[in-house]
Amino acid sequence: MKITVKQLKEMMYWIVLGRKIEEKITLLFKEGRLRGHHHPGIGVEGIHVGCCFGLGAEDYVVPSHRGKLPELMMGVDLKYLMAGYYNRREGLGGGRVPTGSHMYGDMSKHVIPGTGIIGSLIPVAMGAGLGIKVKKAKGVVVAFFGDGAANRGDFHEALNMAAAFRLPVLFVLQNNRYSISVSVEKATGMEHLSVRAAGYGIPGKTVEGCEVLEVYEEATRAIKRAREGKGPTLLECMWHRWTGHSISDADIYRTDKERREGEAKCPVLAFKAKLISEGALTEDEFSEMEKRADDVIEAAVVYSEKECTDPDPSDILRGVYARG
Ligand SMILES: Cc1ncc(C[n+]2csc(CCOP(=O)(O)OP(=O)(O)O)c2C)c(N)n1
Ligand SMILES: [Mg+2]
Predict the structure, then answer these.
(1) pTM (two decimals)
(2) Residue 314 falls inside a structural domain
(3) 266: domain CATH number?
(4) Which of 44, 63, 161, 171 is found 20 to 30 A from 102 (Cα to Cα)?
(5) Structural domain count of the chain
(6) Pocket of ligand 1 (CB under 6 A)
(7) How far apart are CA 189 and CA 292, in angstroms?
């Protein structure tokens, strides 16, 4: 796969930005500056960069509750995303979404809004793919969801219909081996969920999520296939959830050994080490990326805290259809 040094650096920056956003948001909750609920996406960055790097404006993403890179890589401004987290009127969701998350979406950037119902967006992604096919449009849909979501009927119905209609959808199963505290071993009879693809007659593959170029290669193959009208793919990306399920989960059900082994596969450090060893990146360039990411995140926090306003109670009716 041909990829330039400039593109590798862009990927590295996205990964750094994704990590720093998650760390910052988690800290803002701990400091009481953000309120509500948050599911940290620390560790998932390589999957998002690998799957979204090849997307264009005609494509769509369906983010999950982990990580913000799919939204940002589709062009959503971090300021508006952060203001959404603060439930500000000027932010995504207009201050009407109770918890800052994937739920607000931004259709102007082809980011499809989510719900709190795990797995419910998998059929929506399939429907978006059907829309593209019916309209004879060009795009593909990349849908992110977890291993727990893949055990719901939504997953099976959506994959079956996407396969039957050869819809342009890449289903990205982000397998961190847990659905809150329930392990994949307890919830299913299999180790790798990508084998389910065979049941729908579509390609299925498992990759290591911290290996961003491996994810990129498989995602690119699947996206090309979808663009050619050959139908969907199920890409299972393994990753380690660095924190509890959410900021209010004490994470007492995993062992220290498990955590240590998982954290050894860090997408930030793995990709940085690879690029430095290949001469595609220097330590100074990496530090500059970290600073750039810190600066844009700080600007987004200042914007949200100082320049935005709280929603008015009447805002609750915006977007609600009149009855009768
Ligand atoms: C239908 C439904 N059941 C349960 C929940 C509660 N819930 C929220 S997140 C979550 C775990 C989802 O696990 P997974 O899909 O593996 O994603 P992960 O959180 O591991 O990234 C659950 C059970 C929910 N939101 N919706
Ligand atoms: Mg999971």
Answers:
(1) 0.97
(2) no
(3) 3.40.50.970
(4) 161
(5) 1
(6) 39, 66, 116-118, 145-149, 174, 176, 178-180, 245
(7) 45
